[in-house]
């Protein structure tokens, strides 16, 4: 009888928990850097963009959508702890953003085990949709493959064929050097060397001095945010550009260009998934964002909006919050919003969308404070991102019969 009572009690608890889960609000967690090197153009600005996506969507399946957010401090153990609490205690259904690929890998592994949705925006390692891919993870912005492909090709076409890399000493920086080196060498260029500096380094002098004897004509900055700004400023001070060397800066935001100044940054090339001044739709959404934040958005908030808007649309279309059903629906329906037209989520989780090769304007070309880029060209997703069968994604291998 005790066994029977236990089974009955267990069944009752299961039913109660299932009913609670069904009635609970849909909950989205924004996890990113809110206090350090990646807080610029992301952080709480991305939280606000996600809030806009939730407001624009309204109730989903008759339930309200709630937002939580946290600072992962760029530490994988902190990110994993936050994710576990969100999943087990707070009932979070999806985590969005997660800049810093090392943190993203920790969150991705836990989300896979818990069958939760990961909407990665700031996590840029191409391994997210390669060897580490899973059914619950999607990658929304650029990645190391597309940055290397678009930027590397553009710089090579302009004569930049002798590269020295200064990279961030963690997963993202090393993946970006790896992927760009492959593009350079495949097109007849030379990689002269690479050094790696810790995240949030203030003094790059010892690293930049290692580049000087190699006489590069391109200094590849496989870092991002404030690290890129400081790298450029200090490289100029050291005279690394006096012989005509240029920079390949992969992740640089509007505020960073302001910090460097148009005079110093003019001509710099960037590959971005979004620019606020692309068209009437991007300008209209950016005006709404600026009214809340005080300046136009960069790509991280815009892509986080896209990710959450599409996720909630998929929940509605699937008629359930069940992660397997929602993940399948996300891959089935097109991605459409102010920033993305007829985008597609591939089997490996890569969001296929246009990228834009941008160039920093000359001071005389800029008509206002945030009028920073010229659009050099639009790069279709099929040209920018890694082919589906080349990433080593287990889902793709299984679907194609590869072992």
Automatic annotation (TrEMBL):
Keywords: Amino-acid transport, Signal, Transport. It holds the Pfam family Peripla_BP_6. Residues 1-21 form the signal peptide. The keyword Cytoplasm does not apply. GO terms for biological process: amino acid transport. The keyword Signal applies. Residues 25-361 form the Leucine-binding protein domain. SUPFAM superfamilies: Periplasmic binding protein-like I. Gene3D superfamilies: 3.40.50.2300. Belongs to the leucine-binding protein family. This is ABC transporter substrate-binding protein. It comes from Bradyrhizobium zhanjiangense.
């Amino acid at each position: 009888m005790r066994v029977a009572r236990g089974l009955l009690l267990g069944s009752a608890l299961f039913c109660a928990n299932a009913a609670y889960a069904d009635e609970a609000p849909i909950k989205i967690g924004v996890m990113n850097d809110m206090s350090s090197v990646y807080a610029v153009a992301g952080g709480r600005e991305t939280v606000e963009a996600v809030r806009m996506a939730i407001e624009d969507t309204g109730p989903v399946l008759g339930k309200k959508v709630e937002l939580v957010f946290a600072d992962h401090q760029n530490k994988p153990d902190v990110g994993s702890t936050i994710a576990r609490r969100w999943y087990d205690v707070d009932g979070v259904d999806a985590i969005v953003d997660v800049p810093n690929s090392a943190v993203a890998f920790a969150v991705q592994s836990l989300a896979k085990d818990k069958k939760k949705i990961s909407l990665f925006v700031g996590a840029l390692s191409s391994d997210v949709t390669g060897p580490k891919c899973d059914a619950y993870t999607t990658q929304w912005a650029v990645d190391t493959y597309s940055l290397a492909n678009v930027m590397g090709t553009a710089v090579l076409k302009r004569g930049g064929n002798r590269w020295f890399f200064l990279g961030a000493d963690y997963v993202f920086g090393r993946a970006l050097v790896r992927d760009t080196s492959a593009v350079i060498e495949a097109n007849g260029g030379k990689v002269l060397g690479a050094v790696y500096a810790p995240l949030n380094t203030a003094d790059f002098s010892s690293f930049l001095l290692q580049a000087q004897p190699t006489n590069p004509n391109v200094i590849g900055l496989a870092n991002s945010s404030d690290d890129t700004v400081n790298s450029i400023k200090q490289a100029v001070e050291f005279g690394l550009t006096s012989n005509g060397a240029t920079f390949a800066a992969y992740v640089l935001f509007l505020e960073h260009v302001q910090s460097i100044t148009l005079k110093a940054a003019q001509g710099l090339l960037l590959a971005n998934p979004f620019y606020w001044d692309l068209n009437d739709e991007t300008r209209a959404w950016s005006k709404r964002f600026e009214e809340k934040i005080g300046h136009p958005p960069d790509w991280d908030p815009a892509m986080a909006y896209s990710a959450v808007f599409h996720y909630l649309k998929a929940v509605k279309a699937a008629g359930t919050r069940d992660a397997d059903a929602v993940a399948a629906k996300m891959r089935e329906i097109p991605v459409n919003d102010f920033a993305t037209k007829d985008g597609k989520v591939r089997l490996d989780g890569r969001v296929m969308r246009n990228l834009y090769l941008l160039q920093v304007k000359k001071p005389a070309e800029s008509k206002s404070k945030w009028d920073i880029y010229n659009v050099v060209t639009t790069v279709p997703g099929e040209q920018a991102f890694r082919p589906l069968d080349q990433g080593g994604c287990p889902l793709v291998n299984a679907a194609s019969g590869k072992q």
